[in-house]
Design a protein that fits this description.
The chain is an alpha/beta fold. It has 11 helices and 16 strands. Strand 1 and strand 2 form a beta hairpin. Helix 2 packs antiparallel against helix 4, helix 7 runs antiparallel to helix 8 and helix 9 crosses helix 11. InterPro entries: Amidohydrolase, Bact_exopeptidase_dim_dom, Peptidase_M20, Peptidase_M20_dimer.
């Protein structure tokens, strides 16, 4: 593994920034302190900045000194999660009910480190855009930045993303062409019947039994309608109805999630869910309201950009640090919106198994969205080196992009 010597000399400073961000987590579209810190650091290194895209987003612009050329984007997410931290080390969250439990503090710190290096090494042609994105955790900050003009104001020929990945060995990378992470979608079915005395069910229309039948029928969609070789998940996670043992209620509500790796599979599942909801309700004499919310599309890497990332990783870190055959995840990521607009690639960087956590960590595992999680600071120089090499190599290999 070859790390850039200059970066190693100020890794401790990057760590201080990372831990400061961890101690002051901010939720989606509330990243005002984080954005201000990012903006101040970028400007202190001579980086031009643009603020306000996606409400709290920050874009840094680094122009090369060797003439005009192509443009490439590097993206990091900034927001925290609405959950309580269980750790008790010095840099634990200072805000109850808010925690950097997904490593976005580390992602921001690594991209800041890359900005510092690139700002002082501008012997390249072209432009590097540093995208500090808000609201990844379920609020589609990437889509909001795009709607506010991200790719119109800052046209780029490729965009790249990175996420730490617990369980993957420290400092190793995983990447694959095609679907890397699933789409994330939620649904609600409201069944309206006619309430009655539970001892006289013939006088009412029972939405509870309708919900039971519908829940069972929906489980056949993946097993009987979808190609068996097409991965998908349909999970009913909530059923709400009733208030007393002797009352048939007026309505029942089912809620849940659908995950797929392709839009074609998603179309099929949504259509079948709607058909089953309407026809089952009709069969049981209920009215129905079906809502399906497509939240995040699948994260689909582009083949050429994926191959480029693998070359950067193998060249800089060694082939032994690259995992090509990891399975994709049913988790979701709103970097997917950027990949729908611009070619690019998303990679995972191994965060280890939690051995890096200092005394005072919680008793839970060091996994994403867990109150005992903490980003592994050993990744900081690795992530910075990756971003620097990827950006410079991409610009050098695409002079006419």
């Amino acid at each position: 593994m070859k790390l850039l010597d200059t970066i190693m000399t100020w890794t401790d400073e990057i760590q201080i920034v990372r831990r400061d961000l961890h101690a002051h987590p901010e939720l989606s579209y509330e990243e005002h302190r984080t954005a201000e810190k990012v903006n101040q650091l970028l400007q202190s290194w001579g980086v031009e900045t643009h603020r306000g895209l996606g409400i709290t987003g920050v874009v840094g612009i680094i122009r090369g000194e060797c003439g005009t050329g192509p443009a490439v984007g590097l993206r990091a997410d900034m927001d925290a999660l609405p959950m309580q931290e269980l750790n008790d080390f010095e840099h634990k969250s200072r805000h109850a009910g808010k925690m950097h439990a997904c490593g976005h503090d580390g992602h921001t710190a690594m991209l800041l480190g890359a900005a510092r290096y690139l700002a002082s090494h501008r012997n390249f042609a072209g432009t590097i855009y540093l995208i500090f994105q808000p609201a990844e955790e379920g609020h589609a900050g990437a889509r909001k930045m795009i709607e506010d003009g991200l790719f119109k104001l800052f046209p780029m020929q490729a965009v790249f993303g990175l996420h730490n990945w617990p369980g993957l060995p420290v400092g190793s990378f995983a990447v694959m062409p095609g679907a890397m992470m699933a789409s994330s979608n939620s649904f609600q079915v409201r069944l309206v019947g006619k309430g009655a005395h539970a001892g006289m069910p013939n006088l009412g229309v029972d939405p509870v039994m309708t919900a039971v039948q519908l829940a069972q029928s929906m489980q056949t969609i993946v097993s009987r309608n979808l190609d068996p070789l097409e991965p998908a998940v349909l999970s009913i996670t909530q059923i709400h109805s009733g208030s007393a043992d002797n009352v048939i209620p007026n309505e029942a509500i089912l809620r849940g999630t659908v995950r797929t790796f392709s839009l074609e599979a998603l179309d099929l599942i949504e259509n079948r869910m709607r058909e089953l909801s309407e026809n089952t309700a009709a069969a049981f004499q209920c009215d129905v309201e079906f809502e399906f919310d497509r939240r995040y599309p699948p994260t689909i890497n582009h083949p050429r950009e994926t191959e480029f990332c693998t070359q950067v990783i193998e060249k800089q870190f060694g082939a032994e640090y690259l995992h090509r055959n990891l399975r994709p995840s049913m988790g979701a990521e709103d970097f997917s919106f950027m990949l729908l607009e611009v070619p690019g690639c998303y990679v995972w960087l191994g965060n280890g198994d939690g051995d890096h956590r200092s005394a005072g960590h919680g008793l839970g595992p060091c996994t994403l969205h867990n109150g005992s999680y903490d980003f592994n600071d050993a990744l900081l120089p690795i992530g910075v080196t990756y971003w620097v090499r990827l950006a410079l190599d991409w610009l050098a290999q695409h002079p006419k992009a």
